[in-house]
Amino acid sequence: MTEQQPSAPARAQSGTSGVQHVTERHDEHFTVVGNHLAQHPELSLTAIGLAVRIQSLPAGTPVGIKALAAKFPEGEIRIAAALRELETHGYLTRTKERLQSGRVVTRTVSYNKPRNTPEDRPAPPPRRTESAAPTPHRAAADLLAGLRAVDSRLLLTERDVRRLAPEVSVWLERGVPPTAVERTLTTGLPQEPIKHPAALLAHRLTTLLPPPLPVAPPCSAPAPRPDPFQTCDGCERAFRAPHPGSCRDCRTTERKVA
Predict the structure, then answer these.
(1) Number of domains in the chain
(2) pLDDT tens digits for 168-179?
(3) Which of 68, 91, 154, 228 is the most exposed place for a label (fewest CB within 10 A)?
(4) Domain of 85?
């Protein structure tokens, strides 16, 4: 009787190359990582590894530059650059918050799915086709015709509207909002019936006409906007600068060390 030998593990096919996987099921102590991160075409390996590390940590674990540099050999500069990569690609946000004590701290939020990806962006609202703005005489005519909705005694004929529209246009051309013109024409009307509304309106348009706006002085150069807040690559304090990097104290220390 022929002796049976135990089956040996299957050997890789001759001539094949590349990685082969031995996959075992994890029932505890594991983190789910999307291939969009693990196989990201633009992130560096340092950034991908750092993202996996941060996603595996419990909430509240310090993930500042110094805290991470104390655990890994990459150093503060490479870790700071990797954090900026993750911010750029939507896996991390770092926002400045001012405490009641006045101290500014950095709040870090990690995302296991990147923000602002095309599928996450809300669809743009449908474009509305806006009608052309009415001409000054058309706007004036509409204002006069609508006065009867405020007070039925101000019902005007079409002829009256055409006659008064140029006077209303003068108000509009002097920068008076239509609502202010309407308020001027309809406030404080007499209690008795109005026999000649066109004559009343013409009187108010003439006697209450405001002067033209003064010519504005030449605009001075706007004050320069302050630089945005940055997170120091060395000590993680917030400081203002046009680009990421180190704060003044850390730059001074670096120069002394050099």
Answers:
(1) 2
(2) 999 988 888 999
(3) 228
(4) 35-110
